[in-house]
Amino acid sequence: MKFSPLVQELIDSLRCLSGVGAKTAQRMAFHLLERNRHGGMKLSDALGRAMDSIGHCQKCRNFTEQDLCDICQSPKRQLAEIICIVESPADVIAIEQTGEFTGQYFVLMGHLSPIDGIGPDDLGLDTLAKHLASGQYKEMILATNPTVEGEATAHYIADLARESQVSVSRIAHGVPVGGELEYVDGNTLSHALSGRKNYSA
Amino acid sequence: MKFSPLVQELIDSLRCLSGVGAKTAQRMAFHLLERNRHGGMKLSDALGRAMDSIGHCQKCRNFTEQDLCDICQSPKRQLAEIICIVESPADVIAIEQTGEFTGQYFVLMGHLSPIDGIGPDDLGLDTLAKHLASGQYKEMILATNPTVEGEATAHYIADLARESQVSVSRIAHGVPVGGELEYVDGNTLSHALSGRKNYSA
Ligand SMILES: [Zn+2]
Ligand SMILES: [Zn+2]
Hints:
Two copies of one chain form a homodimer. By secondary structure, chain A is α/β, with parallel strands linked by helices. Chain A has two domains: 8-53, RecR Domain 1 (Helicase, Ruva Protein, domain 3, Orthogonal Bundle); 66-170, Dna Topoisomerase Vi A Subunit, Chain: A, domain 2. Chain A has nine helices and six strands. In chain A, helix 1 crosses helix 2 (22-35) and helix 2 (22-35) crosses helix 3. At the A-B interface, helix 1, helix 2, helix 3, strand 2 and helix 6 of A face helix 1, helix 2, helix 3, strand 2 and helix 6 of B. The site of one zinc ion has 8 residues of chain B, from helix 4. One zinc ion binds next to helix 4 of chain A. Chains A, B: Belongs to the RecR family. Chains A, B: One of its GO terms (biological process) is DNA repair. Chains A, B: Residues 81-176 form the Toprim domain. Chains A, B: It holds the Pfam family RecR_C.
């Protein structure tokens, strides 16, 4: 005994969403069918168009439905001498929201992960090597996550840059501004200590 | 600064799924775009067809893409003298899997919940009243959940049946078979005690 074929197909299809197991998929399907058919229709439509027409920016690899993303199309940014390497499109947004950065980005769409079979080619590092060799950039900021994988990826990319004339920096890690010392994890505190700076009041 | 329009639309649309917040929707969208376009396409298709053509069984209210669901179409079941009231399609499947029940079902698709504006009409109790008045049924089993709302709903439906000649029963509540007493919650244990039966070894 199963649900009707189409109900079962909907439940099974929902499991392609990351983090959605059998019970959650069932709850989602019933909720849509019973309370939000309009939302379900809109999702079906958005999904279809997104899967079909969202690709990667030819320059920075961020998701876009155009050949070049808005940032890479901006005339000011095309002359930038700094390129910032991030793991995900969400990181681009986080950095843009600071208003502190006006250079270009390169979005890895992940990090090196030999276990999952994700190597340099999957992160577009061949494209990045060409950007670095072009002579446009003076500095590359490594803004990968401060995780084991993010550090390993940063390390690998730093080596890439050594062949070109690009200086390499890494975003600072330490105690979050506004955070209280006693609630900061030990690893972060170690980083904050070893990365201490001269203080002139 | 936002994601590209279509990426943002996909993220926003995913939030119509129950339990999906902004961060989760973003993670789901990136996962589909980067790792599972095929799954995303299949989901779009299944969603569209499901929202369009799944309705309620005219007899038992369960989800089906036909006028009557498979159970209500079964000739044997059409003669059944017992009707079992459940809250959700998943409950029908759970009871079918026991193989112990061969009667008909009535699926409330929820429970009475004045706070959420869900009253008797939303649960199809007018239809149920007609079934009970038809003279076909000798017994109605109340299998709503043993929650406050489920009990209140069972109580309301039992009153409905009093007007017809249908006897009303409630599924037993107690210690789960195979469960250990010390891990059973107090409420269940109270039910198990007050519902104790004569024991003849
Ligand atoms: Zn771009
Ligand atoms: Zn039915």
